[in-house]
From TrEMBL:
Active site feature: D67 (proton acceptor), N136 (for ring-opening step), H138 (proton acceptor), E143 (for ring-opening step)
Taxonomy, superkingdom: Bacteria
Annotated CDD domains: GlcN6P_deaminase
InterPro entries per record: Glc/Gal-6P_isomerase, Glucosamine6P_isomerase, Glucosamine6P_isomerase_CS, NagB/RpiA_transferase-like
Keywords of this entry: Carbohydrate metabolism, Hydrolase
Catalysed transformations (reactions): alpha-D-glucosamine 6-phosphate + H2O = beta-D-fructose 6-phosphate + NH4(+)
Protein name: Glucosamine-6-phosphate deaminase
Annotated SUPFAM superfamilies: NagB/RpiA/CoA transferase-like
Pathway(s) where this gene product acts: Amino-sugar metabolism; N-acetylneuraminate degradation; D-fructose 6-phosphate from N-acetylneuraminate: step 5/5
PROSITE patterns, per the entry: GLC_GALNAC_ISOMERASE
Amino acid sequence: MKIIKVKDYQEMSQKAAELIIAQVKKNPKLVLGLATGSTPEGLYKNLIEDHRSNGTTYKQVTTCNLDEYIGLPKEDHNSYYAFMKGHLFDHIDVLAENTNLPSGEKEDRSAECAAYEALIHEAGGIDVQVLGIGGNGHIGFNEPGTPFDSLTHIIELDASTREANARFFNSLEEVPTQAITMGIQTIMSAKEIVLLASGTAKVEAISKLLSGEITEAFPASCLHQHPNVTIIVDEAALNENK
Ligand code: GLP
């Protein structure tokens, strides 16, 4: 596990963007695993900026997002589909047909889970997966207790996760109770993983992660078993702010 210590959110976002841009340049057909949440917003801004100024192209890139809420229509501004369109896809030259998120709207949920796994497999597997981290150590929407051998599945969101995400909704009641998410094994199958963490809200999660203990009670701890993980973390998340 490689740890890149940065000053703040801005530097975290820049470093992450440099890493992704270098990979896209090296392999124009990159399969990029993407995340939502406040953490990667700055990374996406930097990718858009670079696309506009330097012309980095995503025409052959395929993207696969980690997760989606169950029950929110795609058009809802809180869907992760809408988030990705608004924060990235509409502003770079990635082809809409090459952007993928699991669907939270399908009636046959287990078929959708299997189909998403098959889609990733057919794309050749994820080359680089971007991750944030939940306060309780979740990655994607894999809440504490999720088996490390899990594939894409439906999960009941923890109360703490719904509370953390309530800031985007009008009320806590509006936050969906379930999500569809890549499993831990799906994430661990990525060739390279980049986890971003910024801010004091992540101090406890980062300190648990860096303690090195590997347990399903703390989902992100699986990353210690992956051969190519980079953590880009700022001083606040490391509790090093003076
Ligand atoms: C969300 C997402 C995760 C994200 C995490 C942290 O619920 N499903 O992919 O990493 O919570 O979010 P944030 O970056 O807003 O702190």
